[in-house]
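Exercise 7 asks you to align residues with tokens for two separate proteins.
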Amino acid sequence: MKSIALKENKDFRRMYYRAKSLASPCLVTYAMKNRTGETRVGITTGKKIGGAVQRNRARRVIRAAFSQLEGRINGSYDIVFVARTRTTQVKMQAVLADMEKQLAGLGVIK
């Protein structure tokens, strides 16, 4: 099942206030059940991470890691991934391992 992008600022703000979250040195994950019947995913990379090249790399790495876990999601969720400074320095496999641990901890994947 393909996920839809979260784009609205109000959706991100709602996630930061209401959703459950888990953090690691290279990724913060917020997850919350939704009633839309589909999974919606948002990725944020702040200016603290670096220039446009570093931020784009962080987004690319997170997107690649999530694409490998996408099929294992049970139910419909809103998920927001927040990149950290370390995200730009690690390989996709490291982000994937963190992401898998966090999504399992939040009950999103089996």
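Second protein for Exercise 7:
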Amino acid sequence: MNVNSIKLVVTDLDNTLLRRDKTISDYTVDVFRRVRERGMLVAFATARPIRAVQSLGINIEANAAIYHNGAVIAIGGAVHRHIGIDYITAKNLLLQTVGTYGNMQVAVEIEDVLYANFDVTKVWTNTTAIMTDFTDLPAMPADKIIVGTADRKIISEIEKSLPDDIYAEITENRLLMLMNKNARKINAIIEIASHFSITLAETAAFGDDYNDIEMLRECGIGVAAKNAIDECKAVADYVCGDCDEDGVAKWLEEKVL
């Protein structure tokens, strides 16, 4: 794809657009302002919930956002669609995981509220959660279940027990996320692009982790951060600079602006 054909820029946040300290430079903000002035649309694609993205105070106007890896899609600042795990399935998975693995740290996101069986501040700073044993959850679909393990043996066991419509994905090499199989960044990008009458071929995606692989491979242009995992770099069309060096913005300025 010719970079001049880009109409939609989709970027992951943590360790891609954001620096490792979760800040964003004035330079990057200015580049994205110029991207929008050139008529291109901007979308964020993250595993984070809505409240966590808002707390970052990113001074970049986005036309759309993908939260929880695609479980929540927002367009124009309003939630467009939820793609979650039904209440009964989520509750059964939570109780089964805790029952099987004893002291395993487990959490679940429901309607932008985090419920957990441990003190989440020891894992995520500036985060709050409602303590629970998962028997008293609201009877609503879950956006995402988080299991505190990266142990391949345990992950394999969990995957074998999952219903057909749920998948598991490792993030940050320390957590396992369980989500609806349709809740994927690439599916959300397709929906957002269609909403704006843009094709996937006219979309550029930036990422660094396992949950970015599909969008880097399937979008018209896929760009992996220098600090990305090897699996991302293997499917990307380009590798930009490190997240701490404004890699995304520099690539856009050099190749697009």
